[in-house]
Design brief:
Length: about 400
């Protein structure tokens, strides 16, 4: 997004405030906020990474006196030490205001009944959905996750009109409702789905089976939680609440800004956060800025649906390969399942990409034809040649956790 003078002043104020925390005193040691007079100066400021935040455990991120902190949330790391984010009363309220705006953008009103299935507790999800809906004046139904029987009973008896969920839980509920044959007793009309990479196939299934319009809601615990952006009725990217945050899209390898509209990693600077302000925080989420204005008339700029995490992204022969793009490409092809793996090897001085995918097609000739189709589409959509190897259904390894699909064996 563009940095105008007002935003620059807000950023300077936020940096000055951040420097009150033990974490930023160390991270920005020797740095003087007075030195920032332009966007160019701002770009010289080092990024803040999730790993850096761990070093501040437990409360090193706090930029306010202890009596100002009213709550903490924590982002679970896959590795060891969690990140603790302290919130002041104002932070909690600002978050609720942003969330209320999300509901309003999705056309939700005080007449709605909001069924909340994300978890409560240290994780930010459930309580964020709750506070925003209450501030809006809607009736909240704070279910939390699990107990599908009870979820569906409450949904029917209380006539929930809005579902809030992760995409996988929304799909599970949709399947259970279908199985029980109670679709005609469900009154849902909208679903707010926590942003993550999810394909069009899944999106269509949830929308059709639940009979709802879908909205992608964005956020991360380090920056308030979910609710810092949402898609509108036009479903063309997520509007970001840029009165609370400044964002940039960078090349994850070089750290430089990408050209407008190009895909890269989302970096966020908080503008008004008191408890734990963050400056140039690398979210690891891959997206792009959508140029131009939205038909809905919202003044807030948009980022595209996430296409994955920068940790999963690799560069081969100068071309970025994003797992999300491969998901999308395969989803559009007949005879190709959503299970695949990409291997990148360095052989005889050259980088080589191999795509393995599962297919129900068994006939050798038919498989060859399918592989040729995939090869051409891969070249066109991903921008690079790959060796294509179809395998039978269930042949690729599965993992309970998030499945890694791209393996870089070059280093
Ligand atoms: Zn819009």
């Amino acid at each position: 997004m563009n940095m105008d003078q007002k935003t620059l002043e807000q950023i300077k104020k936020s940096i000055k405030h951040a420097m009150l925390s033990p974490f930023y005193q160390k991270h920005f040691a020797g740095f003087d906020v007075k030195d920032i007079t332009s966007e160019h100066d701002f770009l010289q400021i080092p990024f803040t990474e999730k790993e850096d935040l761990r070093s501040a455990y437990p409360l090193g991120l706090s930029a306010v006196p202890e009596e100002k902190i009213v709550r903490i949330h924590s982002s679970s790391g896959t590795t060891g030490i969690p990140v603790i984010i302290p919130y002041t009363q104002k932070d909690v309220h600002d978050w609720a205001l942003m969330f209320k705006r999300c509901y309003e953008t999705a056309g939700i009103t005080p007449h709605d009944r909001v069924h909340i299935t994300p978890g409560y507790g240290l994780w930010t999800a459930g309580i964020g959905f709750q506070l925003g809906a209450e501030l809006l004046g809607a009736m909240t139904i704070p279910m939390g996750p699990g107990n599908t029987d009870k979820q569906i009973k409450m949904m029917i008896d209380l006539r929930s009109t809005v579902l809030t969920a992760t995409s996988s839980y929304a799909l599970l509920l949709a399947e259970e409702i279908e199985k029980r044959g109670v679709k005609n007793k469900i009154h849902l009309s909208k679903a707010l789905i926590g942003s993550e990479r999810w394909g069009d196939k899944m999106r269509k299934r949830i929308a059709n089976e639940l009979g709802v319009s879908l909205y992608d809601i964005y956020g991360l615990t380090e920056i308030y939680g979910p609710g810092i952006g949402i898609s509108c009725d036009h479903a063309c990217g997520m509007h970001m609440w840029t009165d609370y945050l400044f964002y940039e899209i960078i090349d994850p390898h070089t750290g430089c800004r990408v050209q407008e509209g190009q895909t890269g990693e989302l970096v966020i600077t908080t503008l008004t956060k008191e408890g734990a302000p963050l400056i140039r925080y690398r979210t690891r989420d891959l997206t792009r800025e959508i140029p131009g204005s939205c038909p809905c008339g919202s003044p807030y700029p948009r980022i595209d649906t996430l296409i994955g995490r920068s940790d999963d992204m690799v560069k081969v022969k100068g071309v970025m390969i994003y797992p999300g793009k491969i998901d999308e490409m395969l989803a559009d092809l007949d005879g190709v399942s959503s299970e695949y793996q990409v291997m990148i090897d360095h052989l005889n001085g050259k980088d080589m990409v191999t795509l393995f995918f599962e297919t129900p097609v068994q006939d050798d000739e038919a498989r060859k034809t399918l592989a040729e189709t995939v090869r051409l589409v891969f070249k066109e959509k991903i921008g690079i040649m790959a060796k294509i190897t179809p395998v039978g259904m269930g042949e690729l390894p599965r993992s309970e956790k998030k499945t890694t699909r791209v393996f870089d064996n070059r280093y």
